[in-house]
Amino acid sequence: MTAQENAAAPIFRIGLVGEAQRLILRNHYAHRVPSIIVFCATQHEPGGLFGDMGETIAAITFSIPPRQYSEPVLELTRLVRKERRIPLTPLISFACAEIRRRALCDLLVSYADWAEYHHGGIYQAASWNYDGFRKPAMVGVIINNAKIHGRSASTRFGTRSPSKLRNLLGDSDVVEPDFDSGKHMYWRALNKRGEKQAGRMGFQKLPYPKPDKPHTGSK
């Protein structure tokens, strides 16, 4: 590899949760950090003492899914970049390889949020499998017009149930369920065990959805 090629190679780091969190809060549309991060990887500009630790320009995080699965999986919970010109597929590939190497799990899942008009193009580019469109689900509650994520509500109040929260808070507070707009579900097996696991869980390999057709394979 020439010096020019080496200089152009992406610079990745593992475990810099603080760097990932700062980028997520600044640049991710949710502006909220996942509560439990099992694995994170970051991409950097050249810089620092050895030229390999400059500004953080992209990040990816994986967490234990909030929803119940019949077998253990990790969910890609945040994928963010400083600027749109930065390609994300190399970071996804790097993170998947490291999760496989560290034997953290055999199967990954991720969701593209249709509320943000995301159809999962980045997962298609990274050759993930498509399992269909998930119907709108309750993701949290709205208390006095303020949205609170389900996990945050459970941590704060001990429940995310609107009816229980109404009883807990009393008539002075208005509590309503908060539903998403549905999500496209993608998955990736990291090895043969992951492929068998996906089969047992009923995951499919459906045709990729188009940006203007959100409800392909609705479940």
CATH class of the largest domain: Alpha Beta
Which CATH architecture of the largest domain is right?
3-Layer(aba) Sandwich
Q: What's the story with the biggest beta sheet?
A: 7 strands, mixed
Q: How many strand elements? A: 10
Fraction of helical residues: 25-40%
* CATH topology label of the largest domain: Aminopeptidase
CATH H-tier superfamily of the largest domain: Gcn5-related N-acetyltransferase (GNAT)
Mean pLDDT: 85
Low-confidence stretches: 1-7
Query: Which structural class is indicated by helix and strand composition?
Result: alpha+beta
Rg, please? 19 Å
**Strands ordered across the widest β-sheet:** 1-2-3-4-5-10-6
Features:
2 domains; 219 residues; 7-stranded mixed beta sheet; 10 strands; 27% helix; Aminopeptidase; disordered N terminus; alpha+beta; 3-stranded antiparallel beta sheet
What does this structure look like?
With 219 residues, the chain is α+β, with helices and mostly antiparallel strands. The protein has two domains: 155 residues, Gcn5-related N-acetyltransferase (GNAT) (Aminopeptidase, 3-Layer(aba) Sandwich); 42 residues, no CATH class. The chain has seven helices and ten strands. The strands form two sheets. It has a seven-stranded mixed sheet with strand order 1-2-3-4-5-10-6, with helices on both faces. Strands 8-7-9 form a three-stranded antiparallel sheet. A hairpin with a 2-residue loop joins β7 and β8. It is globular and about 60 Å long. The N terminus is likely disordered.
